[in-house]
Amino acid sequence: MYKTTETLLGEGAFGKVYLAKNKKTGETAAVKIISTKQLKEKNINIQDEINLLQLCRHENIIRFYGSVESATNHKIYLEYVAGGSLLNKIERDGSLLEGVAQHYFKQLITGMAYLHSLGVAHRDLKAQNILIGHNNLIKIIDFGLASLFRNETTHDEKLLTTYCGTRSYMSPQVYSRLPYRGEPADIWSSAIILIFMLVGNLPWTEAPHKDRNYQLWLFGRYSNHPWKNI
């Protein structure tokens, strides 16, 4: 169906992402190639990520095209977004104009609300996992840490317990390794992204009480970096 090219689009903890082309139509796609050996070593079920991607149908969520499994790797074919990540844009341009940040943030919370309506918590929302496409349409990517937090039949919500995510975006509850609700954890991460867009810097490297910048924020010291730039 697709032919993988040598163009590397990105690299993560468990694999690499390459540009691929549909053999019949020439349509481009992104293919995420994950080592079967690594998945077994880390006891990761890649089918969970595939199932969640298949569930999603929203303009701000990366589209899933299909998957192929072999003895050595798993290939997940996804929509190709040519504009790069939000992180790339902030690193290149610095802080974003308020109107631009508002435009991206509105799409982010719209996509996040859609995920939550399905009972899905992303659990690794960060600037690296937001791609910017045509007409500044953003796409949320990388569902490797996503989890269902609501029963589809009973609609009962469960607390999540897996310590995961990226520390500078991680909520205090997740960082403290306490049971946590999926929705608020994602909302916290999205707020960090908003600050990053407006200021050009992350407010802190970690969320626990020992982080000095977090302490300053916790006790209302808003005059300190990065709040003075907002």
In short:
Helices cover 32% and strands 21% of the residues.
Largest sheet, order of strands side by side?
1-2-3-5-4
**Helix proportion:** 25-40%
- Secondary-structure element order, as H and E? EEEHHEEHHEEEEHHH
State the separation between the terminal residues, measured CA to CA. 48 Å
Give your account of this protein's structure.
With 230 residues, this protein is an alpha+beta fold. The protein has 2 domains: 2-79, Phosphorylase Kinase, domain 1 (2-Layer Sandwich); 86-229, Transferase(Phosphotransferase) domain 1 (Transferase(Phosphotransferase), domain 1). Helices cover 32% and strands 21% of the residues. It contains 7 helices and 9 strands, in the order βββααββααββββααα. The protein has helices spanning 36-41, 46-55, 86-93, 98-117, 172-175, 182-199, 212-218, and strands at 2-11, 15-22, 28-35, 64-69, 73-79, 120-121, 130-132, 138-140, 147-148. A 5-stranded antiparallel β-sheet has the order 1-2-3-5-4. Strands 6-9 form a two-stranded antiparallel ribbon. The longest helix is centred in the middle third of the chain and has 20 residues, at 98-117.
Topology:
Blueprint: E1 2-11, E2 15-22, E3 28-35, H1 36-41, H2 46-55, E4 64-69, E5 73-79, H3 86-93, H4 98-117, E6 120-121, E7 130-132, E8 138-140, E9 147-148, H5 172-175, H6 182-199, H7 212-218
Antiparallel strand pairs: 1-2, 2-3, 3-5, 4-5, 6-9, 7-8
Helix pairs in contact: 4-6
